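Pilot study result, target chain (287 residues):
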Amino acid sequence: MSKTPDHMPVGTMSGTPQVLLAHHLKQLKLPTVLREYDKVARECAQAGIDHPRYLLRLIELELIDRERRTIERRIRAARFPAVKSFDTFDFTAIPSLNKMLVLELARSEYILRRENIIALGNSGTGKTHVALALGLAACQKGFTVAFTTAAALVSQLMEARDERRLLKLQRDLAAVKLLIVDELGYVPLSSTGAELLFEVFSQRYERGSTIVTSNLPFEDWTQVLGSERLTGALLDRLTHHVSILTMNGDSYRLKQSAGRRRAAARAEQNQASHAMADPDTGEIPTP
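Predicted structure:
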């Protein structure tokens, strides 16, 4: 009696060509080819396109889709609180902000040079939006990104220290190409927290890029870190290779909120006017 081999050679499985092709493409992790091959084949047949160009078109679709999925994974891994881009940022609302510099930074070449960015300005001027948009641009350029607030990062570091996994967390933070630390200055830090935060910045010095946003000018950072010595050492590292974005002015968020309120009021007024209009003439009766 002949024995059936445990592993059938490729191509000897039973089933239709479509079933076998679907199986092999799944094994090779080519979901876009699996999804598109039949439609592209019909299009190429109608256009008289030869087999090499047919295969080229399929593989290009796979590569484009693979890059899109990779970018989506980087964005999820960054843990952005919201996905923001410069398409929705109103540069005219913050005249102090150097738009040309920001758009240059959006090319993410500063990450290759391991340079830092510090955005300074009063609350509501769009610092977080700019940081998120720069983080998104970095993800799209192929860099790993991590986003956190200063208070959340310090809490995470202290918890890791208590649970004896601080070294691993520090290695993870040092490994990302771009670390974004938002809202430095909103919450005063304990001496231990300030030292742990300093250690993170120190480990990234000239090894990775960091974006920091703060509502405080540099001379007031001592209020947050609690030590002139530590503040001086931190600024020495952060500002050695840095682009500083000045974002002072009226609250960007308050302007947006006021604009939304005005738009809503106009919509309500138009709706009320429409309801009062004469159904036959469309005219609004005068009181």
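One observation from the pilot: The beta strands are 116-120, 145-149, 178-184, 209-214, 242-246. A full batch analysis is planned for the follow-on phase.
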